[in-house]
Amino acid sequence: MTGSFDILIVGIGGQGTILASNILGEACLIEGRHIKGAETHGMAQRGGSVESHIRIDGLYGPLIPPGQADLLISFDLLEALRYSHYLKKEGTAVVSRNLVIPTSVYTQKLTPPTEDEIIAALKKHGLCLIEADRIATEAGSPLSQNVVMLGAASRWIPLKPENLLEAVKRLVPKKTIEINAKAFQMGRDAGGKS
User: Which intervals hold domain Pyruvate/ketoisovalerate oxidoreductase catalytic (predicted)?
Assistant: First the structure.
């Protein structure tokens, strides 16, 4: 593969965005691939916007410029919409159907976009929608949604799925390895169906 493969992972605080980016980094190390990454913690608290930039085999700095991401992995529909301008025209968005309406929408009496409006806007790129909360719960823990999303996105990531799974096993707490391995595989299966 030539050139950088750029992945932007977005979500809100507490959804496991940073762990997901660390898993990608670990998988790159397993494969001996060059990686650059950067994280931006919006409000640095649960509920604040979090973004992780991952550049596999990148030649330039760690931040992905708008319009240059090959893949957007979003743990929330609104966050996917907020960061969709980072995707290349031919890029793909792997998005959880989860929708968290920020408190500011209520305090400012705003009307949030509907799920259908968000999905319609995201369809200008390749779009893979995942029921991450349902799949994670079936795998054994709703906390494994981030790993479900990595499994779903693994079909587009230029790393071997077995190395991504090995990275999951290395980085999740030991007592949750089995649940997260199952979550990864179930996410991968779901990503193949979209």
Answer: 13-188
pTM (2 d.p.):
0.92
41 versus 156: which is more confidently predicted? 156
- Asked if residue 52 lies in contact with residue 37, where contact means CB atoms within 8 angstroms, the answer is yes
Contacts of 183 (CB under 8 A, 6+ apart): 135, 136, 139, 140, 141, 144, 145, 147, 148, 151
The strands making up 87-96's β-sheet, listed across from edge to edge, are 35-41, 49-56, 5-12, 69-74, 87-96, 126-130
Q: In 43-176, where does DSSP find H-type helix? A: 77-83, 103-107, 115-122, 132-139, 145-153, 161-171
Other C-beta atoms lying within 10 Å of the C-beta of residue 162? 11
CATH of the domain at 61: 3.40.920.10
